[in-house]
Amino acid sequence: MMATFAELTATVGRMEARLGQSENREVQTLLAHYRQLLPRFNQDLADPRDAALAASAALMLIQSVAQAKK
Fold it and tell me: By CB count within 10 A, which of 25, 33, 34, 64 is most buried?
């Protein structure tokens, strides 16, 4: 079953909040780069769902770094 746009945006919001609480400096640096890329996702990807998927993929990468640093 494919996630709805609402589910994707909720997941992205939860991931942003959780990673935003990380005290890891590398994670915070990656989040800053992620925030700079968000407008680009929205500009380059015509479908908002695709932009949300791109954001979630970037956040998954940052989450992977956060988990590796534990």
Answer: 34
Structural domain harbouring 43: 25-70
DSSP conformational letter for 47: S
Q: Which residues of 35-61 are buried (b: 16+ CB within 10 A; e: fewer)?
A: eeeeeebeeeeeeeeebbbbbbebbee
- The total domain count for the chain is 1
Query: 8-61 pLDDT, tens per residue?
Result: 999 999 999 999 999 999 999 999 999 999 999 999 999 999 999 999 999 999
Question: Tokens 């945006």 map to which residue?
Answer: 9
Alpha-helical (H) ranges within the chain are 5-20, 25-44, 48-68
- Total-model pTM: 0.91
